[in-house]
Known about the structure:
395 residues, mainly alpha, Glycosyltransferase, three-stranded antiparallel β-sheet, 13 helices, 52% helix, binds glycine
Amino acid sequence: MLCYMLVTITVCLAQNSSPIDSRKKLSGIIHDNFADGAKQYKVLKSATPPDSFPRTYNPQTGKSVNSNSGWWCSGFYPGTLLYLYEQTGDQSLYNEAVRMLGLLQKEQYNKGTHDLGFMMYCSFGNANRIKPLPEYKEILLNSAKSLSTRFNPTIGCIKSWDSKNPSDFLVIIDNMMNLELLFEETKATGDSSFYKIAVTHANTTMNNHFRSDYSSYHVLNYDMTTGSVKEKKTAQGYANESAWARGQAWGLYGYTVCYRETKDVRYLQQAQHIAAFILKHPNLPADKIPYWDFNAPDIPNAPRDASAAAIMASALLELSQYTKSKDAREYRDVATTIIQNLSAPAYKAAAGTNGGFILEHSVGHKPANSEVDVPLTYADYYFIEACKRYKEMYK
Ligand code: GLY
């Protein structure tokens, strides 16, 4: 095991240094990422109106873009502040996170979105892990109850998006990320209904959302009455039959969490199959930062998506711990390469720039020409999470 770890580090870092030197070098880079991230998030705080949530920043106009608490990304800013607080001990980051939680808490009753896992678990989940409080537990439970109202037993899924057509039931691969909140609430309360919804959603998605090569569609449209699949398509990817990079990352992360929480080997195998699709894809660049879609027509000139890379790195580090196969080494190698490359000036913003965001060069919604080649809160969140996971694996 130790040998595997050392070999991993050798592959990814400076060719002429020893494995231990390489590990120390990356640990130093990660230490700097936490310190630099803490400084950047103070810039981000000062650029954000006190009643708003940061969303992105336009490097061309120099304008920050903010949101209200109902935007699907509202949990990432407090979540990243909490990760950075844990790593730096800077109390002002914790205080800012807690202030934002006050603005976010009303979303516990929001039944109009499937994104409550992102919004409430990345924020209140981390807050409760760091300093458990009865009010956080209550908010997490109410959030899981609200999310569960979107589950339909005929279809076996949580509804992602509402549709004007009453016979439509739309589910996107991103929804796999909201299951962690449900697993957690069964552990917290003993109420198995949340767990049952999570595994049913994961099973239905495993049956229908994936192609034979284990790439995933973005959007499935189920028939409300029969539960059959009416359409398989995309919204944020290049084409219905393409592999949208962040969607592949959400699936990888989601099934890794499902295996952690259930120990059902089918989820482990699913995560490994998704990892193989990503890592063996001829369009995955050598630096392992994917293009925004694996089938983007203008590769190699297509924009990269740092957010997809960060999610993949965090997921691969976790997945590497669940397998003893030689794949584990590859997962760690690729995750290490991603962290190293996102930490370099090509992706990590210089101090005081980028509106206070840590990473540059993510893609939100390319077909809508929205948030293309910009910083995004979730890129920062999963990047800092990946750094934290690396630190915990190699301490
Ligand atoms: N809908 C979430 C995402 O853009 O990945």
